[in-house]
Design goal:
Layout lengths: L4 E10 L2 E9 L5 E7 L8 E7 L2 H5 L7 H15 L2 E6 L9 H12 L4 H7 L10 H9 L4 E5 L3 H9 L3 E6 L10 H11 L20 H4 L10 E9 L3 E4 L10 H13 L2 E5 H7 L14 E5 L18 E5 L5 H9 L3 E4 L2 E2 L2 E2 L1 H10 L4 E6 L1 H9 L5 E7 L6 E3 L14 E9 L4 E8 L1 H9 L10
Parallel strand pairs: 4-5, 4-6, 6-7, 8-16, 8-17, 10-11, 10-16, 11-12, 12-13
Antiparallel strand pairs: 1-2, 2-3, 3-5, 9-18, 14-15, 17-20, 19-20
Helix pairs in contact: 3-4
Length: 456
């Protein structure tokens, strides 16, 4: 096997700063790009990442894997360190089976196979990558010892076997998505990979904790996504003061879990009242993860064009009604915002119609973060699958309730919560339940009470 030959070197600017990018050709055919930050010479171990090409994850942002998130996180970590290298290995798509075969394997996964069995069904190897060429690229860069950024034991063995010292292995911790958690767990169980999401939530918060226990079993309906309602409240049940202030009810650790929940869902949804009052961005910032589609329910298009939820940090959809002016819809569309018109209800946008639009758009899970009117309408119409509440050790007295009038007369007719999960952070207690509203909906249907929503 011949040594890598350097064929080009150029500085490439990225969102994480400039990297000197050095291209190497090897006798086996693929090209390796070494994105270098700082001086790699010296005896100190170099922070290094070997990243296998993944067009669907790296370039298209596919949520079937966490490759794109790992790529961007590794570049950010190396940039923050000020010294390190990311070696990008082309020709290793789909653990070496190629792009078309990877897509064929996805079809098998959709039919029920896990990521290992999908390859085997097609007569393909489970792992067909070799890391000796990448290790030789490291040696060509003068790197003798690395702190390897990886969750993959095969990369550790490959780099070590090619003569590069592994000083330490540093896991690449990301926030899992509901669409890739089974894939990631299969790699851990059957291929020995470290779990990227960290430890399961127990009594204390861990960095980038696995929130799947809070999220519950994601099972979308034919006509709507799986709906998770999440809010933070004080010990006396308020989500804001009487003047509307809600920053910050919960502690930083609880807010980090909220960001991990966003990263786990296809969409995050709020009502226009939350937008005009709090101006949230609704992106994933406190954990490494993909920002979901941002959805605003706004029956008359009161959302200002300056709202942070309309910025370019993630995609946004505004769901409105026929009451909204066509000129305002056009202004939003011109700003790159998707606008969907659905029937209205007595209290604003029809939440059931809005959820149907999301499901038709391919959204399988949606995290609802407010406000009280939206939460009340969803609960009142029996459209919530999971409820997650962060309770902070604060009492504020009079303020805004999370849930408005549901028309409940008899306690026995209230919405029941089952399958409880309880977790404790440094400051807050997080509880999650499945929603069992059969008695509630039966009472509504029989006319024993009327479920009342509020204006949206």
């Amino acid at each position: 096997m011949g040594k890598p030959v350097e064929v080009a070197a150029v500085t490439i600017p990225t969102p994480y700063g400039e990297f000197l990018t050095r291209a190497f050709e090897v006798s086996s055919g693929p090209v390796y790009l070494a994105l270098v930050r700082g001086n790699l010479n010296g005896d100190e171990p170099v922070l290094a990442r070997l990243h296998s090409e993944c067009l669907t994850g790296d370039a298209l942002g596919s949520l079937r894997c966490d490759c794109g998130i790992q790529l961007r996180l590794s570049l950010r970590v190396i940039a923050a360190e000020g010294r390190g290298v990311l070696v990008y290995a082309t020709g290793q798509e789909g653990r070496g089976i190629g792009l078309v075969n990877k897509l064929r394997a996805y079809v098998e996964q959709d039919l029920g196979a896990d990521t290992v069995d999908a390859n085997l069904r097609l007569g393909l190897p489970v792992e067909d990558r070799h890391f000796d060429d990448a290790a030789q690229v490291l040696q060509a860069l003068g790197v003798r010892s690395v702190r390897l950024l990886t969750n993959n034991p095969a990369k550790v063995a490959g780099v070590r076997g090619a003569g590069v010292e592994i000083h330490s292995v540093e896991p690449v911790r990301t926030a899992a998505h509901a669409r890739n958690i089974a894939y990631l767990r299969t790699k851990g169980r059957r291929m020995g990979h470290l779990q990227p999401s960290g430890e399961n939530l127990a009594t204390t918060l861990t960095p980038h904790a696995d929130v799947t226990a809070l999220l519950g079993h994601v099972s979308p309906r034919v006509d709507r996504p799986y709906v998770v309602v999440k809010y933070a409240q004080t010990l006396d049940g308020r989500i804001a003061t009487r003047d509307g202030d809600s920053k910050w009810i919960s502690g930083e650790a609880e807010r980090g879990i909220s960001h991990a929940l966003r990263a786990a869902c296809d969409a995050v949804l709020v009502g226009v009242g939350t937008v005009t009052r709090d101006d949230p961005q609704l992106t994933v910032r406190m954990v490494p993860g993909a920002s979901p589609l941002r959805v605003v329910l706004d029956s008359t298009l009161r959302t200002p064009l300056s709202a942070r939820v309309l910025d370019g940090a993630a995609a946004t959809m505004v769901i409105t009604s026929a009451k909204s002016p066509e000129a305002d819809r056009s202004r939003l569309r011109d700003a790159g915002v998707a606008v969907r018109v659905v029937p209205s209800s007595s209290s604003g946008v029809s939440v059931s119609a809005a959820l149907a639009v999301l499901r038709a758009s391919g959204v399988r899970s949606v995290l609802v973060e407010g406000g009280a009117a939206v939460i009340t309408s969803l609960l009142g119409e029996g459209l919530v699958d999971r409820l997650i509440v962060g309770t902070a050790p604060k009492i504020i007295g009079r303020g805004t309730d999370a849930v408005g009038d549901l028309g409940v007369i008899a306690v026995a007719d209230g919405i029941c919560l089952t399958n409880r999960s309880v977790h404790v952070t440094a400051d807050d207690v997080i509880t999650a339940w499945d929603v069992d509203d059969r008695a509630f909906q039966a009472a509504v249907a029989s006319g024993d009470m009327l479920a009342a929503g509020e204006d949206r």
